Amino acid sequence: MIEAGQHLPAGQLSEYLTEPGEGCSIGPNRFEVQERLKGKKVVIFGLPGAFTPTCSAKHLPGYLAEIEQFRAKGVDEVWCFAVNDAFVMHAWGEQQGASGKVAMIADGSADYTRALGLELDLNAHGMGLRCKRFAMIVEDGVVRSVDVEAPGQFTVSDATSQLARLG
Fold this sequence. Notes:
Strand 8 and strand 9 (142-148) form a beta hairpin. The relative contact order is 0.23. This protein has a single domain (12-166), classed as Glutaredoxin (3-Layer(aba) Sandwich), CATH 3.40.30. The strands form two sheets. Strands 2-1-5-4-3-8-9 form a seven-stranded mixed beta sheet. It has a two-stranded antiparallel ribbon with strand order 6-7. Helix content is 29%, strand content 28%. It has six helices and nine strands, in the order ββαβααβαβαββββα. One of its GO terms (molecular function) is thioredoxin peroxidase activity. Residues 2-167 form the Thioredoxin domain. Keywords: Antioxidant, Oxidoreductase, Peroxidase, Redox-active center.
């Protein structure tokens, strides 16, 4: 499992963009993780899936409510990360009002989740391979802290806990 002091692994993730940008079109766009993190402080929180109960009622809304506090502490971006495709992450972000606040990052194949060592097997519940609930603070591609929730818990990856870590 990824630990503080390590560089995040190389890999690609996806984000659905609503505005065309530098080399990016409207719709799902893949990006290199290390390139996007270069020179930035980013808080990444991962969760089992879009539209699921705790994720929709507490995890993402907590970060949305505190986004200005993260910016005040020098955070360049906050990522919501899940093993869902970019279309699902975008729809969930729209439903939650995340546009322009939290980047809805998709790991549709769970390849990056496996590279992080944060996979969660929910096949017995009909949900397939997912991501454990976690939060990490990353500076210039290096993990400064990582907090992984125990199964069924929501006590260390929430926005308040991560704001406290930032000091």
